[in-house]
Each structure stands twice: as C-alpha cells, then as structure tokens.
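subagent[fold] <- orchestrator: predict structure for attached chain, return tokens only, no commentary.
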Amino acid sequence: MRPFWPRRSPHFAACRHAVRPFDGPAVIGLSGGPDSLALAAAAAAEAKDAVAVVVDHGLQPGSADIAQRAAEQARAWGLEAQVVRVDVAPGNLEAQARRARYAALRAAGREVWVAHTAEDQAETLLLGALRGNPSGMAPREGGVARPFLTLRRADTLGACAELGVEPWHDPMNADASFRRVRVRREVIPQLCELIGGDAVPALATTAARIAQGRELVASISEGAPTDDCAELARDPAPVRRRRLVAWLAGHGVAPGGAQLEDIDALVVRWKGQGPVTLAGGRSVRRVAGRLVVT
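subagent[fold] -> orchestrator:
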C-alpha cells in the first residue's frame, strides 16, 4: 500500500500501534467522527481484514450525506465501505439508536470494531456508578472489539489532523440533555480540577479492572441463565447476578443497578414482595419459586 499518511504523524502512529494486536475479519462501525475515522484509517494502514459500515440513523437533517462522505473517505484509504440506513424505534433515543446500530453492524457476522477511547471508558464507569452499577468495557467482549480503549481522544483528533481529514462532529455530543454529555463536559473536568491533574487515566483503569473482574466471574461461572430461584440462591452473589443479567437479557431487559438489587431480593430475600418495575412498563415478579418477566 502506498502510504496515505505523512512520515511524521505521532498521533496516527499511536492509532496504528493500538490496532496491531487485533485481527479480522471485522466490521468497523464508522460514523465520520474523529474516533471512528482514525480507527478506519489505522485498520487500512495496517492492512487489516476489515470493512467499514456507516449506519445512518436518519435522526438529523443531512444524515445521508454525512454517512456517504464517511464511506467515501474509508474507500479512499482502501477499505470496502457501505452505508446502511436503519429505523430507530420509539423510546429512549440513545438506547434505541444503539440497538439499531449494533444490529446493523452485526448483520455481516463479523467481529464489530468500535472506536471507544479511554475517555469513553471513564464516562462508562461514572454513568454506571450513578445507576448503582459501576461498569467498564473490555477490549473484546460479546463479538465487539475496542482497539482504542487505552488511547486518548487527543490521539484520534490529532490523527485526523495529520491525515488532513475533517471529521464530523455529532451535535448530539454537545447536547447537555444527555447525561453522558454532561459527565464528559462538566463532571470529568471538575474531577480534574479537584485532583489538580488528569482524572481520565485513573477512571479508565478502574473501569478496566471492573471489566476484568466481570470476565473472571464469567470464567468460573458455569451456570446458564435461569429463572429458578432455588438454584440461583445457591450461587455466590457475583455469579447469581451475572446469571440474572443474562436471563434478563434473553427477555430484552437491561436493568439498572437498583433494579438488579430488587430482583436479586426476590431470589434471596423473599418476603412476598410485589413485582420489580422495569423500563418500558415491564416488570419482574416471583411466581411459584420462579422469576417471570411480564
């Protein structure tokens, strides 16, 4: 391949280094933003077996043109690229858009590569903590790979500048009505001010350790998802909750931390309490020693 990058490009070099341990076949989720553009470029430069898929959610004026430009840029770097239009179901906009996007990305049956950075990891930790369930993302999990998880956003922005490409900046990332945006633009800067330095590395490291702990629990837990309360009650709490989450996921339910605690109470602290209310008007109740989603 003829290099499309300048000889001196330290930010892009960091992006290339980050993708080297990852091999395809893969689908790269490309939005046209700086993170995913840098990921697509790095995969192309490293000759990875990857195709780029741009998911057009149709949520903003001109989204089709934005998607097409991103696909054309990926093709200019030598990647195969396509645009897929999806319909976003009513409800929580972020959650429904994510669900539609990942369904489209997984349709090819390849591992999905997404460009989450250390900043995204830090935000995930804080948002999970606010729901009573501090969480972290793994580099590889559930058919999704995150090559940039230890990379900083300054590197993806810097890589785009070095490559001479102008990334698209999603206006939703500046909309303070979304909790993630406020965490990014208000909470993390205040934490940096509080400690007199950069809070992201410590937050991202903590999130990574949580993800590693989750993987460890998964590796030692042989139990399948179940609704049998007696069987669940015999498990250690971390294993039991993992099985509960897996069982709920099979019903299309992703509980928050407080909801999971209440569902766990139906199993191990049963006193005849009523159902646990979930988002979307659904609930979990205990009936004859088994959990039921209604």
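orchestrator: received. Logging for downstream: The two ends are 56 Å apart (CA to CA). The chain has a mean pLDDT of 92.
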